[in-house]
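User: Hey, my collaborator sent me this sequence without any context and asked if I could get a structure. I don't really work with proteins. Can you help?
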Amino acid sequence: MKIALRLDPNHARRWHLRLAERLALRRDTFVAVEWGAASAPLPRSVELLFMLERLIHGQGADDATQFALPGEFARFAAGDTADLVIDFTAGDALRDQPTWHVTFDGGRDEAVALAGLIEARTPVVAVVGAGGVQLAGGRPGTESAGILIRSYGDLLARTATLIVAALDGAAARAAAGRQCLHPLAAPALATFAAKALARAAVRRLYHLCYNAPHWRVGWRLVDGADVVDLRAHPPGGWRELPDDRRRFYADPFPIEYAGRTYLFVEDFAHALGYGVISAVVFDENGPVGTPRPVLDTGSHLSYPFVFAHGGAVWMVPESGAAGTIDLYRSEAFPDRWVKRATLVSGVTASDATLFRRDGRWWMLATVREAGGAFSDALHIWSAPELTGPWQPHRRNPVLVDIATARPAGRVVERGGKMIRPVQDCRAGYGAALGLAEITRLDDEGFSQQVETILRPGPLWPGRRLHTLNRAGSLECIDGSGTARRF
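Assistant: No problem. I've predicted the 3D structure and written it out in structure-token form, which is a compact way to encode the shape of the chain:
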């Protein structure tokens, strides 16, 4: 297949170069770069802000937002007529030549994308084919809201993901674009920059006084309806699992075993700089003692997805720092865990969540690839047995959406529905919790319908609501907290 990338010389960036390199690695694919009509350059203040942010935040010289010179694309010299043109210019498609465009909130200009980011949101991205048909699309996210250069880099990385998905025949995403209401203008950029610098100063001062981030676990003993049933916080609120301020607990996963209830958590010691998995017993009054470490691999672990199957207890902790999704079996519950298999390798996956359906194992996780956010691209794998072999879904990523992609706890069945807790990260990582019904899950597709969004409030004070799990009578959530350094 011959693919031509048509670029605007005033807006060619390193991410276009990386996209060309990535597409050229595809089997039987030839990539060429051709130059279209130049449009008006961006306001000078955009590049000035980028330069300032590179100085403050230490962006590398190879960051995707850097301009690229035409000579850097020399190896992708145009050849014969292309089978497909991916046009990044504002010009009209050439007659009798299949052409795709990328849109941001319905507009094709780079300035539209940047205008959305300075409004503190990531634009809806769509890959559009002939007749305006959406081939792939989604709502990317960022973990760097308020830093334009990083949030733009995250947006561009996920745009590349969607282009590749469209080439792989991904099903159209239900992501409705809209025209940006505010044009990119120097005064808006100046206001954004001033606020961003103020936030950076406050953040640095905060980190001098507090350990951050600092999470906290909420728990309650259920006698009746739980959060999935209530679609709301319980009237009595939550009790907090205490910590010593030198560490935080997050990602609570309770499990019943041998007549007792145990709670597994991410245990992050601020001085250590990475998380281990710890566990504590609960009785009718609450935790018996404090969580104690049960799994430490020397690299960061979190989201201890623990479950029983086949007469044994298993755990799939998040181990994205190692680039794997690993399965552990308990050899002396709850203290001794032995790695039994690597289910998936070569991925930076977050919050792998497993469940059985129709005699088959399914696993959902968000995957960060070629940069971008950790929380916006949902991938699925399936297997006939727990230990594998695990096969990726042919439509991966099945969903690109910062509001509904990342798992937030076990999938549960209620009234014949499969309910999936999801993280709503539009207002920041782990800012809110959604409950979504899985309406389709098969080899050809995935879909879900969000039924409820829960946020922090009087019954759960703070700024985050991030995970939901229950086992027996113990129900748990987590969210943000504060911990002074002195």
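In plain terms: Residues 2-206 form one domain. You can pass these tokens on to your collaborator as they are.
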